[in-house]
Design goal:
Blueprint (H helix, E strand, L loop, with lengths): L13 H13 L1 H13 L6 H26 L10 H4 L4 E4 L3 E5 L3 E6 L5 E6 L16 E7 L3 E3 L5 E7 L3 E8 L3 H4 L7 E9 L4 E10 L6 E11 L5 E5 L5 E3 L11 E3 L6 E3 L11 E2 L6 E2 L5 E6 L4 E6 L13 E2 L2 E2 L3 E7 L11 E2 L5 E14 L6 H18 L18 E9 L9 E2 L4 E5 L16 E4 L5 E7 L2 E8 L7 E2 L4 E3 L4 E9 L7 E6 L34 H8 L6 E3 L5 H4 L7 E4 L2 E3 L1 E9 L7 E14 L1 E5 L9 E2 L3 E3 L13 E8 L6 E9 L8 E10 L4
Parallel strand pairs: 25-33, 35-38
Antiparallel strand pairs: 1-2, 2-3, 3-4, 5-6, 5-11, 7-8, 8-9, 9-10, 10-24, 11-22, 11-23, 12-13, 12-18, 14-15, 15-16, 17-20, 18-19, 19-24, 21-22, 25-26, 25-29, 27-28, 27-30, 30-31, 30-32, 34-45, 36-37, 38-44, 39-42, 39-43, 39-45, 40-41, 40-44
Helix pairs in contact: 1-2, 2-3
Length: 715
């Protein structure tokens, strides 16, 4: 570091100047002090130059001190950066093979023109994705269509939609052509969008998919985003505050390290790479979650104290409503953003697009968020809590105002619907009751409850407050029906009015009244009308088939093999429930399944409800309200007081594809049956109802009950 000191301008004699230069070379510090003395105590001839030299020499003195410090010790690296350093302008590099976006926090590499995410560089990790996989198997969109054909939706063109100091948005597109694509790729026009913003350590992704009216018929069963992370790094999975922990590696599911159980997704770990996981069960469906709760999940690399998270701030683009269950993260390590699937609904959900049916929809945006922490502290909690903080920020910012597609409307282009919902049940209260914590939503026009199987449009849901008031905000323009269901009451509400949402408008529906199905006073009831079987008896798992991520009481139903516990607990006869004596949380098994008799043989099972009636009205009509929480390849037959009657009094016929028992769900699709019975079918005193699940082709032919109520004739 060179410090150049000019000769003092007040020296008028050249010899004096030469002498001063010599003094400066021999002793620079003494020379500096001497010159300061001359400045502060000048001769009369030097007064004119004093002020300007004072400023100059003070600057020289500061530079000299910095130089001396540098000679004595090494200056530590700067840890506090200016705003421009923290949030540098976003750099974009493009070649024939790839496109790179770098905002100084993350560097995202996308294959050109396929639109596959090849790499995400963060902190000291050159790539958080699995580099051993081909480019098409790291971060990608995929769809399952028609005969279970996987299509990774490779695109043909890339366009820079925006490149500013604050963000880069890219569009990867492909148009479907009958002559070249028929039978080969899903008949969709595809637009995959990627956004990197200044100051955000992550990647926003959304897709715009369109069908023209002349496209051929297709079934689109599943649509999602998939990320496959570095297997040697990410081993700690986080789904919620209670479901988190170390999970096996992908290789641990191989036949040499595990044993396949009743279906291919479930394995028993026999020789895992982590010995602490030996004897545990792994099944991706154990990590499922309802749409309303599926907002944040991801993985942690303990070695690097780095987190990788999928953040979904809105469910408007998901199918099946707020209670549809779907996959999250699972062993691989794999992180998913699920948009469409038949999981927990089966083919009952509408995923068929006919020729002549035009359609377009925006899925997302979702945020792929990365964060880091010091490895010295409790980095797992730090990363998880920070991810939850980021989720709150994203929800607060919804709908985003930085997207550049006209297909994604901003807040000012959306509408709002508000009102109040009351429940009228004169057998409980003479006055209408406030529908507290009811789910109220807007979905495509249809029948009451049709939102459960609606798989094409947008849905917007909220919950009422303690007075039944609700406000559904940020609704896309379009035509909807208003639907609702109320905890503690059976059935579905639908407002018999089409609601047209216009940008910027707020619709006040006033007070709405729901009259739940009811024909008479309650004689007895079993369960709670909440559309799940969670209140019934869920047994402890067999000690040999435990997953430690499902040990919390609220997640016990996710354990493997619970269906087989029925045959162990009721080995000498089927379930008998006595009204007034039995307790449904202890004495009503959560799933009505076949009996396993060994040797791969299953028998149908008949459950019995015993109850006592006085003053039977033989000419009146009684009603059995039967609410089912799930059905899978089942038929439920009901007989009154005669178990051996050839013809049942009622049958559901063959119903259900949701497979909730095998996939560790506590519910699937909700169904309600109001069964009328004439009074002459009953007798005064002891009575019995026999519930027979007739199908026993497999362990998972089953129903789950939500609620059962017997009503007397109305007075």
């Amino acid at each position: 570091m060179a410090i150049k000191i000019p000769p003092p301008y007040f020296c008028t004699d050249i010899s004096q100047t030469l002498q001063l230069e010599k003094e400066k070379e021999l002793c620079p510090i003494w020379f500096t002090i001497l010159e300061l003395f001359r400045i502060f105590f000048p001769s009369p001839m030097e007064v004119v130059e004093k002020r300007r030299q004072l400023v100059l020499w003070l600057m020289v003195m500061v530079e000299s001190l910095l130089f001396l410090c540098a000679c004595c010790a090494e200056i530590p690296p700067r840890k506090i950066l200016q705003d421009e350093d923290r949030n540098p302008h976003i750099r974009l590099k493009r070649s024939e093979q790839k496109v790179i976006i770098d905002n100084g926090l993350v560097e995202v590499t996308i294959e050109n023109p396929s639109g596959h995410v090849m790499g995400i560089k963060y902190m000291g990790m050159d790539n958080v994705l699995e580099c051993g996989n081909p480019n098409s198997n790291r971060g990608y969109w995929d769809i399952v269509w028609d005969d279970s054909v996987f299509d990774k939706m490779e695109t043909k063109h890339v366009k820079v939609v925006a490149h500013t100091a604050d963000l880069v948005e890219l569009s990867f597109t492909k148009k479907w052509h009958f002559t070249t694509d028929y039978g080969k790729t899903v008949p969709l026009n595809i637009d995959k969008r990627f956004i990197v913003r200044r100051g955000v350590p992550g990647l926003y992704m959304y897709g715009i998919f369109k069908r023209r009216h002349d496209f051929p018929e297709a079934q689109m069963y599943q649509l999602r985003i998939v990320f496959k992370l570095k297997e040697d790094k990410f081993g700690f999975m986080v789904l919620s505050d209670t479901r988190q922990g170390m999970v096996p590696k992908g290789e641990d599911r191989d036949s040499s390290r595990s044993q396949t159980l009743a279906f291919k997704e479930a394995v028993l770990l026999t020789n895992p790479s982590n010995p602490q996981l030996k004897g545990e069960v792994d099944d991706k469906y154990q990590y499922s979650c309802e749409n309303k709760d599926n907002k944040l999940h991801g993985w942690i690399s303990d070695d690097d104290a780095v987190g990788f998270w999928i953040i979904t701030p809105s469910n408007e683009f998901r199918t099946g409503g707020p209670h549809k269950q779907d996959l999250t993260s699972h062993v691989g390590p794999i992180a998913l953003s699920m948009f469409v699937s038949t999981h927990y609904t089966g083919i009952d959900i509408d995923v068929t697009y006919k020729k002549g049916e035009a359609w377009r929809k925006v899925f997302g945006p979702v945020l792929i968020y990365l964060n880091s922490a010091s490895s010295d502290d409790d980095h797992r909690d730090t990363l998880w809590n920070d991810a939850k903080r980021q989720l709150s920020e994203e929800i607060e910012s919804w709908p985003y105002n930085f997207t550049r597609s006209r297909d994604f409307p901003h807040a000012e282009e959306r509408g709002e619907v508000c009102g109040q919902l009351l429940v009228r049940d004169r057998f409980l209260d003479e006055e209408p009751m406030q529908a507290q914590s009811a789910f109220v939503g807007l979905a495509a026009p249809g029948n009451a409850g049709s939102w459960q199987t609606e798989g094409k449009g947008y849905q917007f849901w909220t919950q009422t407050d303690n007075t039944g008031r609700f406000s559904i905000k940020n609704v896309r323009a379009g035509e909807y029906n208003l639907y609702a269901w109320v905890h503690g009451f059976i059935g579905d509400y639908k407002l018999d009015l089409n609601i047209t949402i216009q940008p910027g408008y707020k619709i006040n529906l006033g007070t709405l009244i729901y009259d739940p199905p009811r024909n008479g006073p309650t004689l007895w009831e079993i369960g709670i009308p909440d559309r799940t079987a969670a209140e019934f008896f869920v047994p402890e798992p067999h000690p040999a088939f435990v997953n430690s991520l499902c040990l919390d009481a609220t997640d016990k139903f996710r354990q493997y093999g619970l269906w087989d516990r029925y045959s162990e607990l009721y080995r000498h006869g089927d379930l008998v429930y006595t009204v007034g004596v039995s307790n449904y949380s202890r004495d009503w098994f959560f799933a009505h399944v076949p009996r396993n008799t060994g040797n791969s043989t299953k028998w149908s099972t008949t459950w019995q409800i015993k109850y006592n009636l006085q003053d039977v009205n033989e000419e009146g009509n009684y009603t059995l309200q039967l609410a089912l929480a799930a059905t899978s390849y089942a038929e439920l037959q009901i007989r009154f007081n005669d178990r051996d009657a050839v013809q049942p009094s009622f049958t559901t016929s063959r119903i259900g594809y949701d497979n909730a028992v095998a996939r560790h769900g506590i519910h699937g699709l909700y169904r309600l049956y109001s069964i009328n019975i004439t009074g002459n079918r009953f007798g005064e005193g002891d009575n019995a109802i026999f519930l027979t699940q007739t199908r026993s082709h497999g362990s998972f032919d089953a129903v789950m009950y939500d609620y059962i109520r017997l009503e007397a004739p109305a007075v």
